[in-house]
Amino acid sequence: MLPFEFVVDGPPVSQQARRRARVRRWIEEVRRSAAQDWPVGEFPEMGPIMLTIIYFYDAVEVDVDNILKPILDALKGLLYMDDNQIADILCRKRNLNSNLRIENPSSMLVDRFSRGKEFLYIVVEQAPDQEVIR
User: Fold this and answer.
1) What is the pLDDT of residue 33?
2) Structural domain includes residue 27
3) Which distant-in-sequence residues (6+ apart) come within 8 Å of 110 by Cβ?
4) What CATH number does the domain containing 16 carry?
């Protein structure tokens, strides 16, 4: 079922958040968003994977290094079985109010941009050849 893309509305919650209940709710929201489009009965990926996470923010930005772990925790067991399968991660943040140029956007991405609100765009795909560095 890879590649697989989905979006999560609103700003992410940092793993540094003081209220652990808030982090747990965020993890549940990410998992719910992914599960909504993941085919029923589809098994998690078993091979090496690559994640691309892009946080499109409006006013307040969150450090990208602090948003990764809750997202990864949310997807484990649904899209992939174990953290050791993650071979590559590309994590970006981009201001919605800047002059962004997106080449070949998916319809899902175009739809979210048209709303003009903060969101995360996440793509899970098979990792590139592990013996080639580009």
Assistant:
1) 98
2) yes
3) none
4) 3.30.1330.70
